[in-house]
Design brief:
3 strands, three-stranded mixed beta sheet, 10 helices, mainly alpha, 76% helix
């Protein structure tokens, strides 16, 4: 502890590219970020306005859109700012806040995806009891539990990380304060931190992912029992899109946080983090909602009503 050098801010190394490439990345990231915000905001607007979409499935989608908006807004504005400045710094408070929100929102999204798969399981395998099982009280409890669990686990990670002394180089080899990159700067034993991260992954990743797989095995069996080919196609289309995003989201998280010693390069971790910060919030509205006939119909109705108002005004 004698040679520790303490500091009040971190330097974010980001991507080691030329200034011209940084400008190209700035435009690209800004475009994707804008699409993510507009897409998720549109989903929220449509679901709130159209009473026909006031069902448990779209209630969960609303919260997923809120998570995605917050997720992207937590990191991307700072990433965009760092593309335009030479000194890419972040304060300790800002770093802690960024780290907490990233993990809290990530944990919450994991829980919400599991809740959504359970909702689809009940809707397809127990359609006659759906309204009884997935009543509004149950839906509210599931959503509150998802947010609370995500927030509490993230708080544990940040509190443990901020108990450590940081010394020497203050360069975080990432484009934001990602917990594994920050822990590399600690000049103390981080075994406890790694064990807590692994335990959290078991609770947040493995258990929900196992439940999702079990739900979809039952759903697949139910789909195969449907006599109508058209009914099979519609049901499978709805569930396959959800399952594909679940696989990407959980798979990438397990790769980064559950097997960190298996050759994951820093560049790989940065690219996978970009998936959560930019790609996933952009894909979710397209996959879950904008390709849905009910949402498309609601958009058409809103467009018509706006057109009629303009005509009368």
């Amino acid at each position: 502890m004698e040679n520790h050098t303490f500091f009040s801010e971190f330097l974010l190394l980001g991507f080691s590219v030329s200034p011209k490439v940084q400008i190209v990345l700035f435009v690209l990231f800004l475009t994707i970020y804008t699409v993510a915000l507009v897409g998720n905001a549109l989903i929220l607007l449509v679901i709130c306005i159209d009473s026909q979409l006031h069902t448990p499935m779209y209630f969960f989608l609303c919260h997923l859109s809120i998570v995605d908006i917050c997720y992207a807004s937590n990191n991307v504005p700072h990433i965009l700012r760092n593309f335009l400045v030479l000194r890419k710094t972040i304060s300790l408070v800002g770093c802690g806040t960024q780290m907490y929100l990233y993990m809290a929102l990530g944990h919450t999204e994991c829980m919400l995806l599991a809740v959504m798969s359970y909702d689809r399981f009940v809707a397809i395998c127990h359609p006659l009891r759906y309204s009884v099982i997935m009543n509004w009280r149950v839906c509210s409890v599931l959503v509150i539990a998802s947010w609370a669990c995500g927030s509490l686990l993230a708080a544990v990670h940040v509190i443990l990380a901020w108990q450590l002394p940081f010394c020497g180089a203050r360069e975080v080899d990432h484009f934001f304060c990602e917990i594994l990159a920050v822990l590399k700067l600690a000049c103390a034993d981080i075994t406890v931190n790694k064990l807590v991260i692994f335990a959290a992954c078991v609770i947040i990743l493995l258990l929900p992912f196992t439940l999702i797989l079990i739900s979809y095995l039952h759903i697949l069996a139910a789909i195969l029992r449907i006599s109508s080919t058209e009914g099979q196609r519609k049901t499978f289309s709805t569930c396959s899109s959800h399952l594909s995003v679940v696989g990407l989201f959980y798979g990438a998280a397990m790769f980064v946080y559950m097997v960190p010693g298996t050759g994951n390069s820093t560049l790989q971790q940065k690219i996978l983090s970009l998936f959560y910060s930019l790609v996933n919030p952009t894909l979710n509205p397209l996959i879950y909602s904008l390709r849905n006939k009910q949402v498309k119909g609601a958009l058409v109705k809103i467009k018509r009503s706006l057109g009629e108002r303009e005509r009368f005004s």
